[in-house]
Write a structure and sequence with these properties.
Elements lengths: L2 E5 L2 E4 L4 E8 L8 E6 L6 E6 L5 E3 L7 E6 L4 E6 L8 E7 L2 E3 L2 E3 L10 E6 L1
Parallel strand pairs: 2-12
Antiparallel strand pairs: 1-3, 3-8, 4-5, 4-9, 5-6, 7-8, 9-12, 10-11
């Protein structure tokens, strides 16, 4: 049974930074193509960043140049470093395997049970 636990969210002002963490158990993240998703109330979860098991990255246009996805294999934890935050980055952030389209790439993985997510709120 795979369990994913997100943390690190908070309330920040525009221009500030946050680093989200995704701690996993039950599978090694280094074996998986993982992603960060963002959801706003009433909307579907959208892919924000992807990190493949081959250490390739892919970002939503809104995240390029500001967000960095990474992984610590020893801790079996994935991160999302977010800088120069904007109010439109606000949302509930989840981690899971990558599923859906991001740019020109379609990811087709079986989603694991969702964690509780971590809330990011950026004030202007």
């Amino acid at each position: 049974q795979v369990q994913l636990v997100e943390s690190g969210g908070g309330l920040v002002q525009a221009g500030e930074s946050l680093k989200l963490s995704c701690a996993a158990s039950g599978r090694f993240l280094s074996d998986l193509t993982m992603a960060w998703y963002r959801q706003n109330s009433g909307d579907q979860r959208e892919l924000v960043a992807v990190l493949t098991y081959q250490d390739r990255t892919n970002y939503a246009d809104s995240a390029k140049g500001r967000f960095t996805i990474s992984r610590d294999n020893a801790k079996n934890t994935m991160y999302l470093q977010m800088t120069s935050l904007k109010p439109e980055d606000t949302g509930l952030y989840y981690c899971n395997v990558a599923k859906g389209r991001l740019g020109t790439t379609l990811y087709a993985n079986k989603i694991y049970p969702w964690g509780q997510g971590t809330q990011v709120t950026v004030s202007s």
